[in-house]
């Protein structure tokens, strides 16, 4: 570093022996660039400048700011954890043992078990084929663990999932279960039958 650069930084040249390769050691504090330590190394000597008071004050300000940031972040994380805990405690658990049973080409029955005494009803959602889930029923009452889906089509796959609801919240979904309705029965035949003695057609 040249003598001119040293003078511009407020570092006086020590004497005429100061060579061109004199070094000034600077450190970063926080996000800014501040003097923390100044060391001028000559060919056969070294000199450490005292740290100015304004630099020390700035360092204390940055340390206090960093500490406040850590406290604020910890407080926010604690609050978020408490909120998640409150939500988890408020919502009932999902129903147990959901089953879907094909009864006919036009009926699928659902069965499940209640998982909490505070449950007041169940929200039933259905997916047709690979489409989106749509709510099809709101079954009220803690003792009702059965639902007949009569709005189905023959030879079609349906997937169901449930959520339990209580005065304090709604549970997460159950694991989905699927059932496929049976094919529709063949239509009755109306073909004419031959039964006359002279080969005439007899329609029955």
Total beta strands: 14
* Rounded mean pLDDT score: 76
Individual helix count: 2
Tell me the fraction of residues in β-strands, as a range.
Answer: 25-35%
Radius of gyration: 41 Å
* Element pattern in H and E: HEEEEHEEEEEEEEEE
Helix content: 10-25%
* SSE-based structural type: alpha+beta
Unreliable residue runs:
1-11
Q: How many domain regions?
A: 2
Straight-line N-to-C gap: 117 Å
Q: What does the largest sheet look like? A: 5 strands, antiparallel
Shape: elongated
Outline the secondary-structure elements.
Elements: H1 3-8, E1 27-29, E2 32-34, E3 38-41, E4 46-49, H2 53-90, E5 96-104, E6 107-113, E7 121-128, E8 134-140, E9 146-149, E10 157-166, E11 169-170, E12 177-180, E13 193-194, E14 201-202
Antiparallel strand pairs: 1-2, 3-4, 5-6, 6-9, 7-8, 7-10, 10-11, 10-12, 13-14
């Amino acid at each position: 570093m040249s003598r001119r650069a040293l003078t511009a930084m407020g570092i006086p040249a020590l004497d005429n022996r100061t060579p061109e390769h004199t070094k000034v050691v600077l450190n970063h504090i926080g996000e800014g660039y501040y003097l923390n330590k100044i060391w001028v190394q000559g060919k056969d000597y070294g000199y450490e400048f005292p740290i100015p008071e304004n630099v020390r004050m700035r360092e204390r300000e940055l340390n206090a700011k960093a500490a406040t940031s850590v406290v604020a972040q910890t407080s926010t994380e604690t609050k978020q954890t408490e909120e998640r805990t409150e939500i988890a405690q408020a919502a009932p658990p999902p129903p147990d043992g959901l089953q879907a049973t094909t009864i006919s080409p036009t009926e699928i029955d659902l069965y499940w078990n209640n998982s909490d005494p505070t449950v007041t009803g169940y929200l039933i959602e259905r997916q047709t084929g690979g489409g989106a889930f749509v709510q099809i029923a709101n079954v009220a009452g803690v003792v009702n663990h059965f639902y007949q889906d009569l709005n189905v089509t023959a030879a079609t796959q349906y997937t169901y999932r449930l959520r339990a609801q209580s005065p304090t919240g709604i549970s997460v979904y159950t694991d989905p279960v699927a059932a496929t309705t049976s094919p529709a029965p063949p239509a009755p035949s109306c073909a004419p039958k031959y039964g006359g003695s002279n080969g005439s057609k007899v329609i029955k």
